[in-house]
Specification:
By secondary structure, the protein is mainly alpha-helical. The protein has helices spanning about 10-15, 20-25, 30-35, 50-55, 60-75, 80-110, 115-140, 150-160. The two termini are about 15 Å apart.
Length: about 160
């Protein structure tokens, strides 16, 4: 996406911040991988206090979702760069919610195959989300719109 002007340091920080949500929400998908490679848990050390708050309060994720959607994405007084990245993080989170529901519905059938299928699927979801979020955080820190296929197109249609 073409730049819409220069982005200030504070805009870059606040644009990268919402990507913490998908990083937290994808954590249960990474259980298999994190058990096999404990060194990867280092990635989540800085997020540990936020993770405890997120999972410590009932409906914290839902409350954060609505606050971000209505107070940030729909607020035209906030820069387009922040709103775009916030909406992109929200869409990644929604995608993860849908995947979690699908695995809960199909879980018994997937586990019947010895668990290898579900482990591979969960690892793929975890690594893909981790890669997308790290890419988006780095691009936000650079002041560049992160182009994630399909998701960025949907975001561009939502954020004007």
């Amino acid at each position: 996406m073409a730049g819409r002007g220069n982005t200030e340091i504070q805009d870059r920080f606040f644009a990268a911040l919402p990507y913490v949500l998908p990083l937290i929400y994808v954590l249960p998908f990474g259980n298999f991988l994190l058990q096999q490679f404990p060194i990867l848990q280092v990635i989540y050390v800085p997020l540990r206090p936020v993770i405890q708050i997120y999972y410590g309060f009932p409906f914290a994720g839902l409350i954060i979702f609505f606050v971000l959607l209505f107070a940030v994405v729909r607020n035209e007084n906030i820069s387009h760069f922040i709103r775009f990245n916030t909406m992109q993080a929200i869409l990644i989170d929604i995608l993860l919610v849908l995947i979690r529901f699908a695995t809960q519905i199909l879980g018994a059938g997937l586990r019947a195959g010895g668990g290898l299928l579900i482990e591979t699927f969960f690892n793929m979801i975890f690594i893909g989300t981790l890669a997308a979020c790290i890419y988006a955080i780095v691009q936000s820190a650079r002041g560049i719109y992160a182009e994630i296929p399909a998701i960025s197109e949907a975001v561009a249609g939502q954020v004007r």
